[in-house]
């Protein structure tokens, strides 16, 4: 993939325009092409930390961004610093399909672009078209994701059409990621956005996740917060979640809830409405995600 025309250095860079850039060894010998960049979740300033580089004979290397120069330049190749040994960190070889990442990191192209995310402020489930980056020294700072059709058209080479398409971006700190890797990292990481949400916003998030994803989230919360989120949810969502919990988990949530919420949560456990278990499966729309039962207004 050839390096696309980059944006002006004063504006944000696009992740898609970094993919395919030439990567060289310190002596100028071609190593390969940039495939992806990683970022740690749950940190106040999410800088890119590693670059995934495809070399010759399908060799793939995970290189620390601090061991590279020219990564944030608008022109020219990316070059490894002198002394970088590709056999060990900061330039170790890794598996292309399942690269070994630090436990709190995700790959931006693989785990964010073209995956669905939840906008925690606007309460939308939507698909990411690109990632906006800011140049901060020799590394990129992740700013936001582009959700507009223009970014997708631009990636397809339809730049003229992209000018007339709408643009919409959401701040990186206002997102919940739903791809498999990002989902698991968020559950295990402190400081990620869902951990600061109140009951009403958690209920909005639970309504937009698959049953498995929502159950993972419920189990990652303290019982009192999980109980409050379920209590604020639409009755169908609350019933579905409560009845997917084990008897012990149900007991823990009901016990942790305020006394005034106990009857409602107990009812969700005992209510065997057909839609909760044996009814038709939830309908899924590719662009909108799961059919929503939004929390009732309070």
Brief description of this entry?
The chain has about 300 residues and is α+β, with helices and mostly antiparallel strands.
Question: What does the model show?
Answer:
The chain is α+β, with helices and mostly antiparallel strands and 298 residues long. Among the domains are: 13-107, Roll (SH3 type barrels), CATH 2.30.30; 197-298, MgtE N-terminal fold (Alpha Horseshoe). It has helices at 15-18, 108-111, 149-155, 159-162, 180-188, 199-208, 211-220, 223-232, 235-244, 247-256, 262-270, 274-277, and strands at 13-14, 22-24, 30-40, 48-55, 60-64, 68-69, 78-80, 91-94, 105-107, 116-119, 124-127, 130-136, 139-146, 169-171, 175-177, 284-285, 289-290. The strands form four sheets. Strands 2, 3, 4, 5, 6, 7, 8 and 9 form an eight-stranded mixed sheet that branches. The longest helix has 10 residues, at 199-208. The relative contact order is 0.11.
Rg from Cα: 22 Å
Strand content: 15-25%
Stretches where pLDDT is under 50 for at least 5 consecutive residues are 1-9, 275-281, 284-290
Tell me which CATH architecture of the domain at 197-298 applies here: Alpha Horseshoe
The CATH class of the domain at 197-298 is Mainly Alpha
Number of DSSP E strands: 17
**Beginning-to-end CA distance, first to last residue:** 52 Å
Write the layout of secondary structure elements.
Layout: E1 13-14, H1 15-18, E2 22-24, E3 30-40, E4 48-55, E5 60-64, E6 68-69, E7 78-80, E8 91-94, E9 105-107, H2 108-111, E10 116-119, E11 124-127, E12 130-136, E13 139-146, H3 149-155, H4 159-162, E14 169-171, E15 175-177, H5 180-188, H6 199-208, H7 211-220, H8 223-232, H9 235-244, H10 247-256, H11 262-270, H12 274-277, E16 284-285, E17 289-290
Parallel strand pairs: 2-7
Antiparallel strand pairs: 1-12, 2-3, 3-4, 3-9, 4-5, 5-8, 6-7, 10-11, 10-15, 12-13, 13-14, 16-17
């Amino acid at each position: 993939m050839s390096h696309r025309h980059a944006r002006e250095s004063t504006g944000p860079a696009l992740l898609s325009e970094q993919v395919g850039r030439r990567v060289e060894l310190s002596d100028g010998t071609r190593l390969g092409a940039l495939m992806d960049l990683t970022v740690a979740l749950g940190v106040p300033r999410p800088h890119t930390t590693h670059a995934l580089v495809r070399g010759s004979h399908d060799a793939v290397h995970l290189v620390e961004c601090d061991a590279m120069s020219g990564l944030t330049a608008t022109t020219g190749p990316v070059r490894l610093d002198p002394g970088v040994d590709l056999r060990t960190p900061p330039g170790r070889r890794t598996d292309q399909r399942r690269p070994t990442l630090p436990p709190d990191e995700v790959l931006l192209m693989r785990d964010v672009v073209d995956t669905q995310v939840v906008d925690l402020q606007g309460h939308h489930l939507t698909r990411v078209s690109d990632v906006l980056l800011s140049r901060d020294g020799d590394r990129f700072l992740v700013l936001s994701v582009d959700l507009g059709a223009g970014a997708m058209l631009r990636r397809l080479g339809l730049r003229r059409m992209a000018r007339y398409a709408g643009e919409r971006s959401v701040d990186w700190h206002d997102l919940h990621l739903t791809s498999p890797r990002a989902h698991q990292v968020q559950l295990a990481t402190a400081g990620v956005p869902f951990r600061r949400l109140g009951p009403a916003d958690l209920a909005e998030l639970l309504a937009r996740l698959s049953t498995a994803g929502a159950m993972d989230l419920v189990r990652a919360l303290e019982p009192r917060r999980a109980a409050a989120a379920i209590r604020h949810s639409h009755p169908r969502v609350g019933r579905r979640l409560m009845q997917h919990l084990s008897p012990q988990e149900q007991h823990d949530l009901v016990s942790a809830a305020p006394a005034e919420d106990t009857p409602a949560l107990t009812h969700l456990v005992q209510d065997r409405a057909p839609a909760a278990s044996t009814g038709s499966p939830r309908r899924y729309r590719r662009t909108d995600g799961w059919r929503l039962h939004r929390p009732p207004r309070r």
